[in-house]
Amino acid sequence: MTRRPFARPLLACLATASLLAASPQAAQAQIATTVYDPINYSQNLLSAARALTQINNQISSLQNEAQSLINEGRNLTKLPTNALGDIQTSIDRTRQLIGEAQKIAYKVQDIDRVFDARYPSGSLQGTSSGRLVENAESRWRDAVGGFQDALRTQATVVGNIDDTRAQLGTIVGASQDAVGALQAAQAGNQLIALQTRQIADLTALVAAQGRADAIKDARAAADEAQARERSRRFRGTRSEYQPRDVSIFHD
After folding, report:
1. Residue 76: per-residue pLDDT
2. Does residue 21 belong to any structural domain of this protein?
């Protein structure tokens, strides 16, 4: 028996129709999987992009907060270098020299006491000759001691220059390596302390030199007053020479 040409298409249509009649849900599912909705796809893609942007923003925020905490930790880190002890040692050396001032100290009470005894401002008529000699010798020793103290202070201040150089190098080096605000502030405070010590050295030097000059001037004034008193005592109470006319030839 010979088949006709349209037999195969007809059989395929019949098979499809029988499949639809047997399971309409399966047929609808098969058709749905093959349908492409561009509007739905674009909305889903936009939602995914927004979600990714939010995630990236959250990650950046967390990174910024972490960096902020790191910076705060650095700002609270103390400077590992502390030159304050060396600076105080240098100041103590200068203070010790001031405390060792010879003869006439830097205290007002001591100055008044010494001047009342050895540098009297009143009359010397009631002072014995031995006392005048003793006071003159004491004033000479005061002057020598004042100049010696000034020289010692100068030597100490000059010796502190090497310490200043070393301390300055240490502090500046630490400030260059500072990792936070606290370390930078502490380095600045130590530099100020170093400058304060230098000012203290200069103050001590000026005071020592001024003290020596003041003692020298006071000694000169006291010696001048004593010289006048000695001259008065040498002249005594004798009347001064009065010239008078003398006649060589007698009448």
Report:
1. 61
2. no
211 within a domain of the structure (yes/no): yes
- The confidence score (pLDDT) of residue 6 equals 44
Q: Count the Cβ atoms, other than its own, within 10 Å of residue 95.
A: 13
Contacts of 245 (CB under 8 A, 6+ apart): none
Residue-range definition of the domain harbouring residue 103: 84-235
pLDDT at 120: 81
| Three-state secondary structure readout of 122-153 | CCCCCCCHHHHHHHHHHHHHHHHHHHHHHHHH
Tokens found for residue 12: 């395929």
Statement: the pTM of the whole predicted model exceeds 0.70: no
Please give the C-alpha separations between residue 1 and each of 4, 237, in angstroms, as whole numbers: 10, 188
The domain total for the chain is 2
75 touches 181 (CB < 8 A): yes
Domain co-membership, 219 together with 105: yes
Dump pLDDT digits (tens) for 206-250.
989 998 999 999 999 999 988 888 888 887 756 666 677 766 665
Please tell me whether residues 220 and 162 are part of one structural domain.
Answer: yes
